[in-house]
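User: I'm putting together a teaching handout on how multi-component assemblies are represented. Below are the sequence lines for each component of a complex, exactly as they appear in our records. Could you produce the 3D structure of the whole assembly as structure tokens, so the students can see both representations side by side? Please keep the chain order the same as the input.
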Amino acid sequence: MLKKLLPVIEHALKKPIWDCRMCGQCVLHSTGMTCPMTCPKTLRNGPCGGVREDGNCEVKPEMPCIWVKAYDRTISLPLPKVWKEHYNELRPPVDMQLQGTSSWINLVTKRDQQTPVGWAAPDGKH
Ligand code: SF4
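Assistant: Of course. Below is the structure of the complete assembly, with chains in the same order as your input.
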């Protein structure tokens, strides 16, 4: 019951604020409270290199680059220092098997810390 209800509640709360796409492994605290899944390329580790001179996206020219926003917010928002430091950490690839599930449940069960076989961050944190 809770497993079905929580994703609905989570989406209802996070969609209006962050345009949450329910990836099931929330990294808002690492990205200046900016959802990286709204990047058309769904990148998790910073800009693709195609950022336009005006700071907008190469795929959607009318849209500001999510990662430019994420960086600016990481600097300007009054976030905890440890969250600001998370910005520079290497995040694992998105686990598409978690799509649609509650990141809150996955945080508690630590399912969101499981990474693909063969993938490891250089710092050994994942
Ligand atoms: S990182 Fe995932 S769970 Fe967090 S707001 Fe974005 S889509 Fe939603």
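A couple of points students might notice: The longest helix spans residues 2-18. The CA atoms of residues 22 and 100 lie 5 Å apart.
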